[in-house]
């Protein structure tokens, strides 16, 4: 990708709004991606508002969605262009700001709670499958 191919105006317009900038900081801290529900909790914003801002970021080419089962996760695009590397470095600096740190604390709490729920769900599903086997001629 050549420098002249980048939509600089759209990129900076997308990053020129506080919520979108904070979304990018959250996505930078979790490279594998985040669901809209994670982002709504982290930024304490409504789901329609977060979705609207993600649409802006997608249109600017900063964010890409990926589906995992029934969930859609968003992550920053991993473009190996010097501009995007510099942009990521700038976002890392912004992530140190106090208001962004507050969002990141909420995000870490949300992700910790989600991982605990997933662990509990796995235990329940294993127990459920064992009891269903017992009802179908398995151990009693």
Descriptive terms for the model:
140 residues; mainly alpha; Arc Repressor Mutant, subunit A; 3-stranded antiparallel beta sheet; globular
The CATH architecture comes to Orthogonal Bundle
Distance between the termini: 63 Å
| Estimated structural class | mainly alpha
Q: Please report the total strand number as a whole number.
A: 3
Q: What percent strand?
A: 5-15%
Query: Unreliable stretches, pLDDT < 50, 5 or more residues?
Result: 129-134
Order of helices and strands: HHEHHEEHH
Percent helix range: 55-70%
Under CATH, the topology can be stated as Arc Repressor Mutant, subunit A
CATH superfamily: Winged helix-like DNA-binding domain superfamily/Winged helix DNA-binding domain
How many discrete domains? 1
Q: Write down the CATH class.
A: Mainly Alpha
Polypeptide structure, described:
The chain is mostly helical and 140 residues long. It has a single domain, classed as Orthogonal Bundle (Arc Repressor Mutant, subunit A). The chain contains six helices and three strands; from the N terminus they run ααβααββαα. A hairpin with a 2-residue loop joins strand 2 and strand 3. The longest helix has 38 residues. It starts with 7 loop residues before the first helix and ends in a 5-residue tail after the last helix.
Q: How would the blueprint of this fold be written?
A:
Layout: H1 8-15, H2 18-29, E1 34-35, H3 36-43, H4 47-59, E2 63-68, E3 71-76, H5 82-94, H6 98-135
Antiparallel strand pairs: 1-3, 2-3
Helix pairs in contact: 1-4, 2-5, 2-6, 3-6
Q: Quick recap of the structure?
A:
The chain is mainly α and 140 residues long.
């Amino acid at each position: 990708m050549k420098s002249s191919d980048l939509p600089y105006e759209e990129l900076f317009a997308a990053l020129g709004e506080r919520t979108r900038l904070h979304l990018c900081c959250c996505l930078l801290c979790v490279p594998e991606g985040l669901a809209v529900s994670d982002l709504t909790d982290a930024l304490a914003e409504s789901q329609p508002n977060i979705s609207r801002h993600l649409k802006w970021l997608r249109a600017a080419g900063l964010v890409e969605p990926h589906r995992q089962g029934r969930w859609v996760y968003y992550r920053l695009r991993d473009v190996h262009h010097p501009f995007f590397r510099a942009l990521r470095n700038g976002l890392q600096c912004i992530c140190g700001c106090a208001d962004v740190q507050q969002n990141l604390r909420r995000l870490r709490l949300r992700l910790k709670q989600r991982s605990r729920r997933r662990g509990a769900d796995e235990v329940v599903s294993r127990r459920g499958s064992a009891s269903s086997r017992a009802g179908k001629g398995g151990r009693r």
